[in-house]
Design a protein that fits this description.
- By secondary structure, the chain is mainly alpha-helical.
- It has 11 helices and 5 strands; from the N terminus they run αααααααααβαββαββ.
- It has a 3-stranded parallel sheet with strand order 1-2-4, with helices on one face. The chain has a two-stranded parallel sheet with strand order 3-5.
- The longest helix has 31 residues, at 99-129.
- It starts with a helix and ends with a strand.
- The model is unreliable at 1-13 (pLDDT under 50).
Amino acid sequence: MSIENSEDIINPDIEIKPPVGFLNGLILAIISGIFYWLAFPVIDIWFLTFICWVPLIIAIKGQTSKNALFLGWATGITCNILGFYWLYGTIRYFGNFPFIVTILFMLIICSYQGARMGFMAWLYSRAEKKGWPFGISFVFALIASEIVYPLLFPWYTATHIHSVPVFMQLADIGGPVIISALLAGTSIAVAEFILSKKEKRKINKLRFLAGISTPLILLTYGIIRIPQIEKAIETFPSGKVGLVQGNREMIGDNADEGLKKYREASYELEKKNSPDFIVWPEGAIRFLLNEKVIKNFFITDIFKKNHYYGNFDINTPIISGTILEKKEK
């Protein structure tokens, strides 16, 4: 029995020859990282999500587990450096580090973040060595990596289609991970087509048809589900929410001025729009609060006890994040 025909039989003795060498695979892995980044906010070329994995799948197929890990890592580092470029300014400004140290910290963070894709490629390679079909192996590896691997700045592949709600609705059944898995289907189908030509074998029709059908699954469910949600929303009572997001310094001599700005903005919001309640961000209140008295705490108390912030004449309820301090008796 040939390798091509036995690929979909679970057999630990199967050996698959890599369609490309490691160096060419590295180029393909980097291309995958670029595609992944381009499909992500803020660039938002979202349709690239349907092919972003193709170069990486071709690159890691048949590779050793070690090579697959490094190739997946290359994809992850590429998309993280491009996507988290703002880390440089954040680290440099708040840490006041020199250029070289800032770049080093940024590379460390992006390398750690990118290792999730390395982990995914390693899992895929291990499954492949056990004889698992590459389509199923890749999807399971992708799901496992997005569930298990801890990130400093979490994201899912499903974020690619954040601006296309019709493709997002299936998340109410399986969360963002199921969207990520189904979005990978088209990449698997395209990779199967390319690999069948390169390996001079017949295309696996089941894998190809299953892969290209995944967008139709997302689309069909979305078309059915969105009207149901809109109808349900119409029957529920509505409310008006005010949001206050202050553009202020978090550290330095002027940091305390931020609370004044939140007060003034909330007052104007209440006066002009009469919201049912107002929401402040997690960084609005900069000092610790004792968790034992939090039940009796109101934002108005801040202003009553500290005249530096001025009078607080707002009647609208305010919700804000803060940090609690645990104090023993």
